[in-house]
Amino acid sequence: MKLLTRSDAPDASLGVVERSAYMLGNVGTAFVNTIIASFIMFFYTDVMFLDAKIIGSILLVSRILDGVTDIVMGMIVDRTHSRHGKGRVWVLRTCIPYAISGILLVCVPAGASSLIQYVYVFITYNLCNAICLTALYVPYNSMTSNMTNNPYERGILGVFVMAGAVIGTLAVQSTVDAATKALGGGQRAWQIVILVYALAGLLLHLICFALTKERCGNDENQESSEEKLSVKEELGSLLKNRYWVIAIVFIFVCLFATAILGGMGMYYAKAALGDTAYYARFANAISITQVISLCGAFILLKKVGKRNTMLIGISCMVAGCLFHLLSGTNVTMITIASGIKGFGAGFAAAGLYGMVADTIDYSDWKFGVRPVGVGSAGTTFATKIANGFSVVLIGWIIDASGYNPAAAVQSEETIRAISLGYTGIPMICGILGIILMCFYTLDKKYPVIQQELMERKQG
């Protein structure tokens, strides 16, 4: 494995430095995005004492705007031409606004009326998630397709990207509870901690920009065709692409499952086990084993392909959820079950980004349209919809269960509802993922597709 990338050819084999720099971009994104996905609901309900049902409804409405901005940003990326590439230039342009918007999330005016607080939540949540994160993350995801067109390299990049997400998530979930408690546990504590995360993320985004390069998709002929490309053609080529649709739905169910585990973990630890400190133990078990399996995913990707690697992983996740259901409140057994879930999640996530890049090539081969920006926006859309709907569902479950953030001990009904949601929902998602992968057969066809695309370009 070489240290540096020594070629600017479209099918270049990337060096460890460039792969790692690309990975660090996702670590930086995860520093703030983990707060959005796993802790923001807990912050609103247990620190600011806002109503879980109202917050959940606000975030549900925000998803509609989020879906629109993802598609719009994808179209902007497809029509971007700069010396820094299509996606990479937007990482530079948006990393500072994203960091600032993340800090604003926890600056809800404490002394204001409830109405003003809810309006503030709506504005800042959409600013961070629907605007700044979209403008950063859609271009970032599109870089997987444009850094190289080598399918194996894309698979490896996907592993690095997911490793970055896990590392960033692990860093936040390992420290946020202890750090905020050490600083007093109030709003000021959360502001200080998230300021540190946001600044660290900003630095990593700048490293990502400086040490990566886009080698594909920015030539003059493509620029001319993209200027003539209509929105209808661009979206139509994706919606008619069954593999892209399967990939996006699979990403949604996988990330929805992990978002439930992340977002509901604090409530589960507090209600079922009596202390939020247990959350870090379970979450770290998931993240650490996920990193281990991501490292091993290189071998599986090469031997059995993206689809079979992800099928093995999602099946392992289902087994871990079932084991958790049978573990009761035994902390040791729950930790083992969490490790099984994480191990499966690593394999399930290993091929996600490379899979989407392959489906974009399929659109190029089948329909003569290569919608890199919008196709990659589907990944971002699925990620944020999964995170958003998980927060909404958690809010509804918390409210319906009768959860009381000020109570030292929750009712049996509350504990039962939270426990079932924390384990049952991810297991259902895993079963749906297995079914979806049974219909994904692009791996077998891809070598022929790639060869024909190369011949067309040479012609």
Q: What is the total domain count? A: 1
Helix content: over 70%
- Rg: 21 Å
Q: Count every beta strand, where a strand is a DSSP E run of 2 or more residues.
A: 0
At the first level of CATH, what is the class? Mainly Alpha
Oligomer: single chain
How would you describe what is shown here?
With 459 residues, this protein is mainly alpha-helical. The protein has a single domain, classed as MFS general substrate transporter like domains (Growth Hormone, Chain: A, Up-down Bundle), CATH 1.20.1250. The protein is built from 16 helices and no strands. Helix 1 packs parallel to helix 14 (372-401) and helix 3 runs antiparallel to helix 6 (187-211). The longest helix has 49 residues, at 277-325. The radius of gyration is 21 Å and the shape is globular. The chain starts with 15 loop residues before the first helix and ends with a helix.
Which key terms come to mind for this protein?
mainly alpha, Growth Hormone, Chain: A, 81% helix
